[in-house]
């Protein structure tokens, strides 16, 4: 018996990287999965095809997470298409790196809109559709815990905010049997942060294990929290960082 059989999940930013790995793992566990994407329709379609190849229903929804109306509409559309919603994974994010002096209103607003406001908006929309035992899982960042390079202040601030949101959601939604948790990845091999990139050896050296994670390793923890075995975990920040913060 697959542990998410009969469940419906929505993964924001699910066309690539950690988001795609999460979407595919939830489908492997038996869930029907909707993903949002901003621009890359082809990659979103590829994820949908791989989910459907596993015998699950899948849906790709174009939505800029920085647009609260579009994001709310995507949550509502996913729930309508699949008859409800059991799991929300807040994965979409932007990573704007640079010196403090170079971060103007446009950069600040975009980062906060996608990395902070969007998870809250999506959670608010999803909670209207969630049944007993629902799951809200957000994807944080190791640099929200430990900023090892200059230029990370804005991004670190935005990801740190998710811990407070997660604790608040856990208290508010707990009486309905809905859990809320934060998964905090360490360096992970993705398009935006490849394990063979120019600074990869230095970055890997900050971890206790001396390597980058595969996105599937992050997805495995998300799947655990989404399933029945994670039912008594809520309000937690779960570090999957190879000892980055040890």
* Order of helical and strand elements: EHEHEHEHEHEHHE
Write down the Rg.
17 Å
Largest sheet: 7 strands, parallel
Ends apart, CA distance between termini: 36 Å
| Assigned CATH architecture | 3-Layer(aba) Sandwich
Indicate how many domains the architecture comprises: 1
List how many beta strands DSSP finds: 7
Highest CATH level, the class: Alpha Beta
Q: List segments where confidence is low: pLDDT < 50 over at least 5 consecutive residues.
A: none
Tell me the CATH superfamily: NAD(P)-binding Rossmann-like Domain
Share of residues in strands:
15-25%
Give me the number of helical elements.
7
**What percent of the residues sit in helical stretches (DSSP H or I)?**
40-55%
């Amino acid at each position: 018996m697959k542990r998410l059989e009969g469940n419906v999940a929505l993964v924001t930013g699910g066309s690539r990287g950690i988001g795609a790995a999460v979407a595919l793992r939830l489908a492997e566990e038996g869930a029907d999965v909707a993903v949002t994407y901003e621009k890359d329709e082809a990659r979103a379609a590829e994820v949908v095809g791989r989910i459907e190849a596993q015998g699950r229903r899948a849906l790709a929804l174009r939505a800029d997470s920085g647009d609260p109306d579009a994001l709310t509409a995507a949550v509502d559309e996913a729930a309508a298409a699949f008859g409800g919603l059991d799991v929300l994974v807040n994965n979409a994010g932007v990573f704007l790196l640079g010196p403090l002096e170079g971060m103007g209103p446009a950069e600040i607003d975009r980062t906060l809109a996608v990395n902070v406001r969007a998870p809250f908006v999506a959670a608010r929309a999803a909670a209207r559709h969630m049944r007993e035992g629902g799951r809200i899982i957000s994807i944080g960042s190791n640099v929200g815990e430990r900023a090892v390079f200059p230029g990370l202040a804005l991004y670190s601030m935005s990801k740190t905010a998710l811990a407070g949101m997660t604790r608040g959601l856990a208290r508010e939604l707990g009486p309905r049997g809905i859990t809320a948790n934060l998964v905090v990845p360490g360096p992970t091999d993705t398009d935006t942060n490849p394990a063979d990139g120019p600074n990869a050896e230095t970055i890997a050296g900050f971890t206790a294990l001396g390597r980058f994670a595969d996105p599937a390793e992050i997805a495995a923890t998300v799947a655990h929290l989404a399933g029945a075995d994670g039912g008594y975990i809520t309000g937690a920040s779960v570090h999957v960082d190879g000892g980055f913060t040890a």
